[in-house]
Design brief:
five-stranded parallel sheet; Rossmann fold; 2 domains; phosphoprotein
């Protein structure tokens, strides 16, 4: 079972999310918090695998709460929730290490699937979302970012670079394996090495780095 914690200041939203997620046989909503200020205590109390984190909350926003949660020992994965797909807080939360983001009008089946994907160790990276994210970070200082990104990529093998491009395109491990004629387990091992070598918190950060380096 994947243990899920919901953090949102709106009771109706929490109730709706709980109803949707609880309908999945492999998901268990273990707790709720109504503000980012309560998120860390709730994580310590309930030990979730995945946290659904609202961004805009009155006392402590989801960005600050995400940083605090991810600073814990053996932290859960965090998926940020927002009403606005261009909310700057979302980009900053992803940069801070969140594993993806969801719009609050995401269809129930996709919401469940997203939590399952993140719990399995992957980020929610649809190609459309990836393009918008990397476009956001391509706003200025491109040449200096490219030099920095290329320097960081020097530690990668040729095969790791191929996997990196697949990740940056928003492909799943299975899709990358089919394209590169590798098993899914081998791709997963390459992705793990990528994250370690590049000191990246998740696949979203890898995608941004690949874009900055001009690999897409």
């Amino acid at each position: 079972m994947t243990r899920v914690l919901i953090v949102d200041d709106e009771g109706l939203v929490r109730a709706g999310l709980r109803m949707i997620l609880s309908a999945a046989e492999d998901l268990d909503v273990v707790g709720e918090a109504e503000d980012g200020a309560d998120a860390v205590d709730a994580v310590r109390a309930h030990r979730p695998d995945v946290v659904l984190m609202d961004i805009r909350m009155p006392r402590l926003d989801g960005l600050a709460a995400t940083r605090e949660v991810l600073a814990l020992a053996d932290p859960p994965r965090v998926v940020v929730l927002t009403t606005f797909d261009l909310d700057d807080y979302v980009f900053r939360a992803l940069e801070a290490g969140a594993s993806g983001f969801l719009l609050k009008d995401t269809p129930p089946r996709e919401l469940v699937r997203a939590v399952q994907v993140v719990a399995a160790g992957e980020a929610m990276l649809s190609p459309a979302v990836t393009r918008r994210l990397i476009g956001h970070f391509a706003g200025g200082g491109a040449s200096s970012r490219q030099r920095s990104a290329l320097a960081r990529l020097d530690v990668l093998t040729a095969r790791e670079r191929e996997v990196l491009v697949g990740v940056a395109r928003g492909l799943s491990n299975a899709d990358i394996g089919r394209e590169l004629f590798m098993s899914e387990a081998t791709v997963k091992a390459h992705v793990s090495r990528l994250l370690t070598k590049l000191d990246a918190g998740n696949r979203v950060q890898v995608a941004i780095l690949a874009h900055d380096a001009g690999l897409l």
